[in-house]
Amino acid sequence: MTQLAQTNELTLRDQYTFLVRSYEKFQAQKLKLNMARGIPCQEQLDLSNGLFDCTGPGDYKTGNGVDCRNYGGIEGIPEVRELCAELLETDPQQVLVGGNSSLNLMFDLIAHAMFYPLPGGSRAWGKLPAVKFLCPSPGYDRHFAICEHLGIEMIPVNYRQDGPDMDQIEALVAADPAIKGIWCVPKYSNPLGITYSDTVIRRLAALPAKAGDFRIFYDNAYNVHHLTATPARLLNILDACKQAGHPDRVFVFGSTSKMTFPGAGIAMLASSDANLNWLKKKIGIQTIGPDKLNQLRQVRFFRNRAGIEAHMQKHAAIIKPKFDLVLTTLTAELAGKSLASWSNPQGGYFISLDTLPGCAKQVVAKAAAAGVVLTPAGATFPYGRDPEDKNIRLSPTFPSLPELKKAMQLLTLCIQLVSIEQELA
Ligand code: PMP
């Protein structure tokens, strides 16, 4: 070993000893903090308490006289379809409003497609030797869980600054008829915070897919979840698909889960007539109708898109300081050290953090051993396998600011500790 290398190793060891002492101090605090899932905090939930009394005992009829207390209305009550059409930027006739969970709608839709051919397809997916989905990654773990659960093979696709790598996607779908779908979170994506450019959306709409029943599962979960005064806008994919000659290509999803109450919002879907008719027949077997009273409540509470936008500004006022705290701690502790990089999202629910390759699992384990639970490393990739073991999804919304500060100090300490351990190994 050269003298310089010996000196460097000594300083590194000193640094390591110092960091270990700080870590032990954290352990002594017996923290119990959870940053694992992107859920709203209580203050955010309180914003929607008006839902409890926005309808009274005499307010249960729609504008066209339907009694929301009774069965029926598979596609949602007219006024909720109107509200959701405003959100999804389409006509109310193209919209179906369901129960409380858009993930549930996605799951059911794909499960139905396993049994019955979609418009444009000749065989049910479940009868084919293989069904594959493209999974831009890092992505939403619950999308990937649906595929894994239903035996759909997942092909990871890389991200670029303005959306998934379209060169990669075009080549893949043109070559393989077993590729039946792609997951997309087009605005403030989970977890990267990326918003798709017009070019990416046009290329998705025009994809030269070999499978006639190829579908885009376009989960616009963070449509109105802005963190800045200059909200991102998306090109309308329903129109783009029509223009590209693929009117049945896309299912657009959304929900009010993270606008009102996550367990008691409403889920929505927009698509072509052919797709909607196909789906309505299947849903009609599953249920006699959704919770129309909740649909009515959400309409009374929000009134229109402007009502939603104003409400979302109140959410932003609560969570923006939390995002800022995470970002300033990352910058203060790690900037210039070449140990990690992170996203600076303009909306959505997450900050995506990349450690040095091979460190994420150990960082998450170290943080857990000192009382801070993070999203499991790897969760943001198909099959839970991050090929570089570097991505960690941070969810700043739930913890209080003081808790978040502690959690972030510990996390940045763990990143430094694990990186040095790797270097000294
Ligand atoms: N899609 C994405 C991208 C999400 O992040 C979430 C919530 N974490 C959901 C869907 C879940 O939506 P819902 O509550 O409507 O099922």
TrEMBL record:
Keywords: Aminotransferase, DNA-binding, Transferase. The keyword DNA-binding applies. This is DNA-binding transcriptional regulator, MocR family, contains an aminotransferase domain. The keyword Transferase applies. PANTHER family: AMINOTRANSFERASE, PUTATIVE-RELATED, ASPARTATE AMINOTRANSFERASE. GO terms for molecular function: DNA binding; L-aspartate:2-oxoglutarate aminotransferase activity. InterPro entries: AspAT_Ic, PyrdxlP-dep_Trfase, PyrdxlP-dep_Trfase_major, PyrdxlP-dep_Trfase_small.
